[in-house]
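Hi all, posting the design record for the shared folder.

TITLE: backbone redesign
STEP: 1 of 1
STRUCTURE INPUT:
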């Protein structure tokens, strides 16, 4: 399995938003969805504000792969399950990185439903 480079981790981790395209059954990519992204150590995560019921999240479960773009980095990725032992760390990065939007907005991704819909983005190439 491929790994993120230091430059990719820095650029994606510092980006405010990431565009995510999930793959359909036939391998074609869906339209991009823009979302917040966080880095914890050498791993990159996204969450669905609507938990597992979010349309884009459900789309990631079809083939569990797609493409992400942030700050000039475009990468084919796998949508992997998250070690929920990291939930508190992921929550803290979301709170710190996006605090300027206020607790009510950040609370949309720092809650139990969103934690269930946390995806680790793992490079495929």
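Okay, here is what came back for every position:
SEQUENCE:
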């Amino acid at each position: 399995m491929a790994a993120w480079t230091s430059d990719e981790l820095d650029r994606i981790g510092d980006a405010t938003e990431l565009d995510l395209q999930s793959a359909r059954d036939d391998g074609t990519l869906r339209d991009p969805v823009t979302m917040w992204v966080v880095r914890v150590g050498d791993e990159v995560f996204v969450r669905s504000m609507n938990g597992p019921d979010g349309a884009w999240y459900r789309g990631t479960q079809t083939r569990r792969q797609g493409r992400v773009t942030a700050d000039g980095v475009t990468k084919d990725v796998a949508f992997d399950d998250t070690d929920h032992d990291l939930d508190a760390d992921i929550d803290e990065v979301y709170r710190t990185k996006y605090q300027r939007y206020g607790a009510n907005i950040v609370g949309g991704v720092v809650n139990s439903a969103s934690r269930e819909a946390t995806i680790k983005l793992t490079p495929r190439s």
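COMMENT: Residues 6-123 form a domain with the Pnp Oxidase; Chain A fold (CATH 2.30.110.10).
Let me know if anyone wants the other runs.
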